[in-house]
Amino acid sequence: MAGLTVARSALAALPEPVIQTSVDTAAPLVPNTGRPYNPVVTLNGWSLPWRMNNGVKEFHLVAEPVVREMAPGFKVNMWGYNGQSPGPTIEVVEGDRVRIFVTNKLPEHTTIHWHGQRLPSGMDGVGGLNQPAIPVGKTFVYEFEARRPGTFMYHPHADEMVQMAMGMMGFWVTHPKGKHPHISDVDRDFCFLLNAFDVEPGSKTPKVNTMTDFNIWAWNSRIFPGIDTLNVRLNDRVRIRVGNLTMTNHPIHLHGHEFLVTGTDGGPTPPSTRWYEVTTDVAVGQMRQIELIADEEGDWAVHCHKSHHTMNAMGHDVPTMIGVDHRGLVNKIQRVAPDYMVMGERGMADMGEMQMPIPDNTAPMMTGTGQFGPIEMGGMFSVFKVRKDQKPGDYKDPGPYKFPQGTVAYEWSGATPTAPRSAAVSSSGKAEATAVKPSHSAKHH
Questions:
Q1: Residue whose C-alpha is closest to residue 66's, from 75, 53, 74, 57
Q2: For strand 74-81 and strand 298-304, is the pairing parallel, antiparallel, or unpaired?
Q3: N or C of the chain: less Cβ packing under 10 Å?
């Protein structure tokens, strides 16, 4: 069971904790000990190094307060692991004996639950049920065999509402020990977690008691334009693993390609159960693993398809002003409020171009600029970049796509063709309809 602390005299024997504060996507961690595998790339994250000790793969996680830059100029006080939220991705191989040391540097007790793993009950990490909680300043040990390949997560199961709302979570990938009938070899393997926060504009610490009305929707505690792009080579076979630790579901949508859902919480799916999609819904606490052939060159959006999840902090109680005529009113208001400006009467696109002041440490609601102008996005949005000249193993951003001549939508300069309209309404302004009363001989089906 994980309830045994490590004596001070034995701390010198612990693996040295590796701390990372960079928000950049790290290169894949190629294994130099243990069994070989094809490593993943964690979006705006990294994989945790380990040491081998008499055949056991040992990791050291440190639960601690961290500061995460969610986007340029926007930093949030969080709790996480080894200097970041989310914590580092843990990568092992099916059949590995794994030992994880967890040191608690939080101001309260904690545990770690290994979400989706098959393991002894005493290692499952539910405080009070499976183990005593890890006190402040203590180190506990979890040890078990990685019994099945797949995509997993880890997070606290002690004061869970607060600790997860503060950003405590991480990814876990168990690679197959050999050729697996349901797991393909891929050229690139990405992973990221979906998380959400409620950070009042101008503040730095999430409101942990929020149940549903979150205003920051993130991938790996980053928001657009702070989320790195997913950069691949034309015709690469690509796997993307997504885990959801928010309080709602997220339909993840990829432009320009179809994909197969090849793995779920329960592990890899048999090929006979798969079908092509362009959007897959990831429910609360679920993992989804998708695969595709990147055979369409270009810059392709990838995002949550809930439209308010692709925006940054916004006021949810602002009235809709579309169609409101402000003429004759603005000058009167500006006499008493000189800084007043008209917003929203034509829609919200103006917000993507305005340079109006916002509170310190606040991300713009709609932001980002592409080669054709404002992108007007935020939150859970990134770009899947497919290039024929991207070298194998090169994950650097290749820059904007160079569109071939004649392949970009353009302004029409000729005569505008007549647009068909729906059926005309009657002179009374009401749609015409005819009701037919069924005869007595009609049969109901």
A1: 75
A2: unpaired
A3: C
